[in-house]
Structures are given as C-alpha cells and as structure tokens.
Amino acid sequence: MKNILAIRFVFLIFLTALISCSHDDPHGEYVSYESPVNYDLEAFPYEKLSDYNFFKGDLQNQDPVIGVVPYKPISSLFTDYAKKMRFIWMPENSSANFVSDYEVFDFPVGTILIKSFYYDHVLPSGVTKFIETRLLIKKPTGWIFSDYVWNEDQTEAVLDTSGSFVSVSFLEAGITKTTNYRIPSVSECMTCHKVGNIASPIGVKPQNINSNYTYPSGDVKNQLQKLQELGYLRSFNTSSISTVVDWKDSSKDLSLRARSYLDANCAHCHSDDTHCSYRPIRLSFHDTEYSSTNLGLCVLPDEDIDASLTHIVSPGRFERSVLSYRMNSTEESIKMPLIGRNLVDESAVSLINEWIDSLTEICE
User: Fold this and answer.
1) Residues 63-91, mean pLDDT to the nearest whole number
2) Rounded CA gap, 89 and 110, in Å?
3) Mean pLDDT over residues 49-78, rounded?
4) Domain shared by 169 and 63, yes or no
5) CA–CA separation, 96 vs 138, rounded Å?
6) Residue 15: which pLDDT band, with cuts at 50, 70 and 90?
7) Which residues face 212 on adjacent strands?
8) Rounded CA gap, 295 and 15, in Å?
9) Which superkingdom (predicted)?
10) Which residues neighbour 344 within 8 Å (Cβ) at sequence distance 6 or greater?
11) How far apart are CA 297 and CA 301, in angstroms?
C-alpha cells in the first residue's frame, strides 16, 4: 500500500510539473508550449487583427495568449503622445540569435512583432481609444508590414496599408491636446524601417531592452533573461551590454539621456544605409559613444533653413542649433522626425536644449 501511494505521489508531481510547463501563465517560465495563435505564414497578413488570436477575451484588453510576450524599450519613439503596447510571438521551437549590443536580433522566419497605439483620457468622455496595431511579420523573403485600423466600437481592427488620419483630443498630464494622428502607409513604414532597401525592425535590440519589466503575472525580471528562459532568445552573455538609459529619468547622466533620446527617435534615419544616411550625422547610441561629429557638434548645416542656425549642434547655444530648431517645428519641410509626429515633444526639446547648452566645445 505504501508503495502504491508513493507511486501515485510521484506521478502527481510529474503531472503537475507537466501541466505548469505547458499551459502556465503566458509570462511564466516555460520553454515548450502550444500557442493558440492562428499561424499560417502563407496566408499572412489576415484581414482582421482578431484572426491571429493574439489576445484572450475582448480585443481591446490586449490580454496576450500563451507565447505572445510583452516587452518595453527603455526609451521609445515619440508619436504625438500615443501610448504603446508591444509584444513578440515566435513559432514553437524557434529562437532569435544575438548579433551585437546595438543590432536587431536575428529573428527566425515566422516571428511577429506587434505594436498597438492608443490614447488614454480621450475627450470628451475620458476613455481609452486604440488607433492602430502594426505588425511586422518575417516571411521567408523578409519582413512585411501589416497595419490594422481600429473601429469606433473598439471591437476590431481591419487591415489597411494605404494610410489615413485620425483626429484625437486627449488629456496629457492634465493638459488638453489635439492631433491629426497619422496612420502610416506601407511606403511610410519603409521610410523608417529599412537598411539599404531591406525592411527591418528598429527597437528590438539588446541595448534597448536590457532592463527589468513587470510581467502581467507580477514577475519582475530582466527582459533579455526572460526571453532566454522562454526559449525566444538563444543564450548569450548579457553582463557587459552597452545599454541606453530612460531619457526621461533626470537622475541619469545628461549626455546619456540625450544620446538615448536621439537613438530612439532619430537613429533609424540617421545611420548608415538608412533614409537620411546622406546627412553628415550618425545618431545611434553606438555611433555617438566616441564621436562628437556624429552628434553634429560644430558640423555645418547641409541646408539653408534659417540664417541664425550656424551648426547642426552649436555647443552652448541651442538657439543656433539645427537639431533643436527641427525638433521644435511642426512644419512639414522642417520638422524632425519627418514622419510620425504632428506635435512637438516639449520635454524632449527641453532635454536637448539643456544638453546643447551644457556643451563646452569651441567651433572653429
């Protein structure tokens, strides 16, 4: 009798472990799972966001199913104050590879990167409103863009890659703001998401997600380590990664904050083989580590925008700096970034102005 009870006890432990390993919370520590995502690579993109089955229950709750893993960059791109939810999904038994601190992971075919854009406190009733959900899907031939526009009832998002505008009024830090939010077309997506003429993700780099994240289960863990535990990243040493900082964190070094902001908001165009590679600056976090020229310090403008602007960055004088001038403009021919915003990110302008005024280099 004791032997039978012992056998049953061992079997119960084994069964519990098996169940928890296969069907635990989607952000628990598992490697093998059967995801309910509706995966048909040849049929992608689907006509509706709900067709993928990324989320449980009401679509607007963005409650991910098993295998759809949330992540958050340390510093992110400004998009007219829109908030964002980001997720990664990969086919079962596939993993991404580390390339370098500052390069996008080498993702396997079938990977889907999901990013939903929404506003809280939308007027007049103060509700949350989803605007669009963008997907980057890696097919055998490379990445494709699929954009899903949400309906007014917030029950569904439908594929639309032609681009459109949505007028939104909302409260930001208690202040009423209004924007004609731009949902990009495929060609506009390609403007920012390309290296050479090849489509590519932007933010999913080790330097950008080497930080703690509180998962829906309450688990707080470094995102890189979590993705390795889940089997989404092959193991690599994370101890010496050169990592960006949260540019909004005033306790961090001013120069690191400025470089981190420029990396998140400008480097996708101002890097080698990108849309603005002909410009004389390189603004990725990696490229600005040792080069003041890449940051634009004392670099002459390559366009005659305003006679008062003497350099891309004029040390100690933000009012003479093209960088500050462009960031503080909403004119189509002047503003930077050129796509993705119709409002001025006032906090970012203040940061960059403070950083420029702190510089002591003397231009010849």
Assistant:
1) 97
2) 8
3) 97
4) yes
5) 12
6) very low
7) 222
8) 58
9) Bacteria
10) 327, 328, 329, 330
11) 11
pLDDT band, residue 274 (cuts 50/70/90): confident
320: tokens are 């003479």
Both tokens assigned to 347: 């906090």
Q: What are phi and psi of 112, to 5 degrees?
A: -125, 125
Q: Does position 3 have pLDDT exceeding 70, yes or no? A: no
Whether the predicted pLDDT of 247 surpasses 50: yes
125 plus 258 within the same structural domain: no
- The per-residue pLDDT for range 106-151, each reduced to its tens digit, is 999 999 999 999 999 999 999 999 999 999 999 999 999 999 999 9
Residues 52 and 170 in one domain: yes
Distance between CA 26 and CA 272 in Å, rounded? 38
Cis previous bond, 108, omega within 30: no
> Token pair 């992971």 is at which residue?
105
Residue 33 is predicted with a pLDDT of: 63
- Asked if residue 82 lies in contact with residue 119, where contact means CB atoms within 8 angstroms, the answer is yes
CA 362 → CA 90, 298, 319, 322, distances in Å?
A: 50, 8, 16, 17
**Residue 253's domain spans which residues?**
247-364
Q: Rounded to an integer, what is the distance from CA 193 to the centroid of its chain? A: 12
Residue 220: strand pairing partners:
214
Based on the fold, state whether residues 145 and 171 are members of the same structural domain: yes
Helices assigned H by DSSP within the chain:
2-23, 186-192, 206-209, 223-229, 254-265, 322-327, 346-358
pLDDT of residue 181: 97
Token digits of residue 58: 């009401």
Q: How many domains does the chain have?
A: 2
Please report where in the chains the tokens 């009024």 appear, as a residue: 169
Please tell me the predicted confidence (pLDDT) of residue 277: 87
3-state DSSP assignment of residue 117: strand
Q: What are the two backbone dihedrals, phi and then psi, of residue 40, each rounded to the nearest 5 degrees? A: -145, 90
Residues, the chain, total? 364
Q: At residue 364, what is the residue type?
A: E
Q: What pLDDT does residue 245 have?
A: 98
CB 114 within 8 A of CB 86: yes
Query: Which residues on neighbouring strands pair with residue 137, listed in sequence order?
Result: 112, 144
Q: Are residues 200 and 283 in the same domain?
A: no
The pLDDT of residue 141: 97
**Strand duo 175-183 + 127-139: pairing:** unpaired
> Which pLDDT tens digit goes with each residue over 295-327?
999 999 988 889 999 999 999 999 999 999 999
